[in-house]
Amino acid sequence: MTADRTTGRLLVSTPQLDDGLFHRSVILMLQHDDNGAHGVVLNKPLGAEVDSVLPGWGEHISAPQTLFQGGPVQLDSALGLVMVSSDEDLPPGSQRLFGSVAIIDLDTPPLLVMPEVGGLRIFAGYAGWSSGQLESEIARGSWMVLDSLPGDLLTADPDRLWEQVLLRQGDELAFVAYYPSDPELN
């Protein structure tokens, strides 16, 4: 797999990856090149009030209105992602990553950004891999690389995203969605 093939795609954990944050996780890959890879976990809401960390942004968050744990790296930093129109100018303080996904500078006043975007999600931290690390994990069978849909970033039902992504694949991957969370209970 060439390094750039995961940018803009989803990493979906396989059932064998059953530890902590990455158990049944869906990661939107923001960047992947020869130096490593970065993404955010889309389905791990923290239940924390955004305004307690970033005053003024809470009322603009897409449902569910909470901070999400983007990954285990730099949990003391926040990353804002928005959906933008692919054919219009970007709002102030934003930079397109791919397709309709852009990153925003959270120091930009929300009222300058929000009228121009289709939704916002804020993540505490991110998931990161050093050069070659992600490729090794994919080869070991820890991750499936699947196409993303525009609605994945701002899903209103993050708790079901893992199974929804698998079910829409059809064939054998749809069966993985029914794999028990705890195989001992099977």
Explain briefly what this protein structure is.
Helix content is 13%, strand content 30%.
Question: What is the CATH superfamily?
Answer: VC0467-like
Largest sheet: 9 strands, mixed
Helix content: 10-25%
**What is the C-level CATH assignment?**
Alpha Beta
Mean pLDDT, to the nearest integer, reads 90
Structural class: alpha+beta
Q: Could you say how many structural domains there are in total?
A: 1
What does the model show?
There is one protein chain. This protein has 186 residues and is of the alpha+beta class. It has a single domain (3-185), classed as VC0467-like. 13% of the residues lie in helices and 30% in strands. It has four helices and nine strands. It has helices at residues 110-113, 133-139, 161-167, 171-176; strands at 10-13, 26-33, 36-41, 68-69, 73-83, 94-98, 101-104, 119-130, 143-146. Strands 1, 2, 3, 4, 5, 6, 7, 8 and 9 form a nine-stranded mixed β-sheet that branches. A hairpin with a 2-residue loop joins strand 6 and strand 7 (101-104). The termini are far apart. It comes from Knoellia locipacati. Belongs to the UPF0301 (AlgH) family.
